[in-house]
Amino acid sequence: MNDAFRCSCAALLVMLGLSACGSSSSGSASATAGVSGSLAGNAGGAISGASNASAGVGAGGASAGAGAGTSGALGNANSGAGSGAPGASAGAAGASGGASGASAVAGAGGSAAGSANYGGSAGYQPWPGGNAVVTVDPVDTYASDLSGLQYEPASTGPAVLWAVQNMPSKLYRLLWNGTTWASDTSNGWSAGKTLHFANGQGAPDSEGVTRTAAGGMYVSIERDTDDGNVSRLSVLQYDVTTQVSTVNALREWNLTSDLPATGANLGLEAITWLPDSYLVGAGFIDESKNALYVPSNYGDHADGIFLVGVESSGMVYGFALNHTDNRFTRVATIDSGNAGIMELSFDADVGYLYAVCDDTCNGRINLLTIDTRADSASRGKFIIRRGFERPSTMPNLNNEGFTVTTESTCQNGFKAVFYAEDGSTGGHAIRRDSLPCGAFL
User: What was the pLDDT predicted at 123?
Assistant: First the structure.
């Protein structure tokens, strides 16, 4: 990553009748500690924070009425309850008969023709989650360069937080120990596993990490830091079931030839995997064929599409990656809405794609979905639905990682999200907040 692009809850939880911060029940605790612990310590703040966010949205949107347009309908992170001041101005405009934002309700409108469900991101709303950010990693664990994150829900084992680091190139398997998310001490994970290319050589500049439903682990890279002046926009697949502490890539898809040229340290900063079931159900359009996406066109492609984000441009590209012959096909080109992009995270439970920028963009996140409107020119393509400021209790940090937990972890209507910071401010690199459960747009 280019440098230039670079809290307590016990009382609240007692009031809510929840367990103490980070605790988990006995019996099946080993399998569920990461789930219950992931949000404990944040649930109380999440509820009060959500009320404030709703108040801000209402002030800036619903009271704005017609004529709210883009200025009043979307929030401002510095306006306390949300978009109160802009909302007041917009309300006056609405009272005088402005017509352009008439269909924008509850703060949703972002364009003249915006509706409650498709408002765009002409402005940024307050963070809709808890706004109660806390650190959750052991102090002084990561000196710097922690980047991508991926949450794996508990199933036959505990929940896992995967984290990738670019220098040195490492993948970490983190487990909730009741207090922090710390490295798994078994199977060679205690200090993270060193990553190499398929030939056992090199030092991949590992920036993003994602996991398929079947358990495949993939890392996006910008370059080989042993040859640091040459751009190498690649996706690497790794086997994370072995007990060795150094792992070589199973496969590499070098996408450089199919992507716009970029600086060697400004490349594939982000990656996420989207299942075919979601894409087909939403009527996703395959741009390579200008037709509905048909999974069978792509053979062994891990039952989904991989989205990668280019740091320097903020653009996102979707690829079908053939696992038999290492060929690839670009099926989507998406504007993230930010000048740069540092992380992508897909919430498969509700179909939300989060495009994350770091301190360069004040930590803002855009939320995208596939446009399903029958009469829309962008039907079947990803569009920006909302823009959010960073949580109010989050300093403007160089956050390069972000991941959303599953609906199964919900407590009092909220589920945890995690951030990874490149700079390890105050000796901490991983922080937690929350988002509302369900489809909250």
Answer: 86
**What confidence tens digit (pLDDT) does each residue in 259-289 have?**
999 999 899 999 999 999 999 999 999 999 9
Mean pLDDT of 297-321: 97
Q: Cβ contacts of residue 332 below 8 Å, gap of 6+?
A: 284, 286, 287, 305, 307, 316, 317, 318, 381, 382
Structure tokens at 21: 């911060």
In this structure, what are the phi and psi dihedrals at residue 169, rounded to the nearest 5 degrees?
-75, 110
Residue 118's pLDDT is 62
Q: How far is Cα 407 from Cα 248, in angstroms, rounded to an integer? A: 33
Give the other-Cβ count within 10 Å of 66's Cβ.
19
Q: Is 120:111 a contact under the CB 8 Å cutoff?
A: yes
Secondary structure (DSSP) of 228-258? TTS---EEEEE---S--SEEE-SEEEE-GGG
| Neighbour tally for 375: CB within 10 Å | 5
Span 35-67, pLDDT tens digits: 434 454 333 333 333 333 333 333 333 322 232
In this structure, which CATH number among 2.120.10, 3.30.70, 2.60.120, 2.60.40 belongs to the domain 132-436?
2.120.10
Per-residue pLDDT, 143: 85
What is the sign, positive or negative, of the torsion defined by CA atoms of 9, 12, 14, 19? Answer: negative
Per-residue pLDDT tens over the stretch 97-121: 333 332 222 333 333 333 345 655 5
Going 56 to 61 to 67 to 70, the CA torsion angle's sign is: positive
Q: What is the number of other CB atoms lying within 10 angstroms of the CB of residue 352? A: 19
What span, in angstroms and rounded, lies between the C-alpha atoms of 106 and 116?
7
Q: Are 372 and 282 in contact (CB under 8 A)?
A: yes
DSSP characters over 281-346: HTT-EETTTTEE--GGGGSSSTTEEEEEEETTT-EEEEEEE-TTT--EEEEEEEE-SSS---EEEE
Which residues make beta-bridge pairs with 411? 414
Residue 23, Cα to own-chain centre: how many angstroms? 25
Q: Is 348's pLDDT higher than 60?
A: yes
Cα separations in angstroms, 365 against 44, 61, 130, 154, 302: 23, 20, 15, 26, 27
| Side-chain-side CA neighbours of residue 399 (13 Å) | 29
Please determine, for residue 371, whether its predicted confidence score (pLDDT) is greater than 70. Answer: yes
